[in-house]
Amino acid sequence: MSKQVKLSALDLSVVIEGGDAATAIARTVDVAQYIEQLGYKRLWLAEHHNMEYIASSATSVLIGHVAGKTTHIRVGSGGVMLPNHAPLAIAEQFGTLETLYPGRIDLGLGRAPGTDQLTAMALRRNNPNTAYHFSSDIRELQTYFSNDNSGGRVRAFPGEGLNIPFWILGSSTDSAFLAAEMGLPYAFAAHFAPAQFRTAIALYKQHFKPSPQLDKPYVLACVNVIAADTDEEAHVLATSMYRMFLGIVTNTRRPLSPPVPSMDPYWSPEVEAAVRQMTACTFIGSDKTLAAQLSRFIEETGINELMTTSNIYDQGARLKSYRILKEVLS
């Protein structure tokens, strides 16, 4: 690799065919413990709601569970969808997490609902416009963690005075401008929304203003990686991921399915085109193939950190994929 980048992982606790939420969470813990041994920097968990086959809806609870089952890997939110929550509640939750696991908690913040509009309304009760308050809610959250709030009438305990890194998550250029303005690290969801990735990170770097947390731009890109001993094996393993995205595109969601020899029986040309567009930032293959693909990607984008999500049905093959990737980037 021409440039050393930090390596991390994103997990949604996806339910596999034949499994349930409990087995999904157990798989997440298994991944966390394994990649911690490999030397990955962090594992993030993502907030989603009203999705039958994703078990990460109570994100802060799951972060605490994973942090308690590991020893030093950073664990955080990728992200907490702040419009769904009162900033004070998030300050208290993450203040508690940081108190329990000092120096190991990240707070990634997103503006999207992480669900459909009806569920968003159920989460937000009678305040449907909270997404428009995203930047002010982040500043309110920062206030709760600040020592300067010791004279405030509303304070967060635990939380006040704790140094928890904030991240702005994004899948569009809007978030790039906000992350730059606030001087926060920027994590882009290229694993499912790659279209504006390069434009967004260029804008972020161009407009970045230093802050107490960060003196220069820091870009994390989340991508899909499926690694195996051979390209052929990796492409077969990847069919589980493609069938998952097919379910999203056609609104026919199912548990993560076992791999199949070919995707041809499962999608039409139109659906394939939509899935390929969503998964344009996907890297599949052996160590040699991934080394070439990722070296080019890292060089072109200038990212500081690569976060991988690897939706592989077989847990052994999934762990092996994380190991191969770590060897490629070492």
UniProtKB/TrEMBL annotation:
Q: Name one Pfam family in it.
A: Bac_luciferase
**Start and end of every Luciferase-like domain?**
19-304
Q: What GO MF terms are annotated?
A: oxidoreductase activity
Highest taxon in the source lineage? Bacteria
User: Which E.C. number(s) belong to this protein?
Assistant: 1.-.-.-
Query: Which key words are in the record?
Result: Oxidoreductase
Among SUPFAM superfamilies, the record links this protein to:
Bacterial luciferase-like
> Is Translocase there in the keyword field?
no
- UniProt similarity note: To bacterial alkanal monooxygenase alpha and beta chains.
Cited PANTHER family = LUCIFERASE-LIKE MONOOXYGENASE
Instruction: Indicate what this protein is called per its UniProt record.
Output: LLM class flavin-dependent oxidoreductase
Q: Can you name the source organism?
A: Parapedobacter deserti
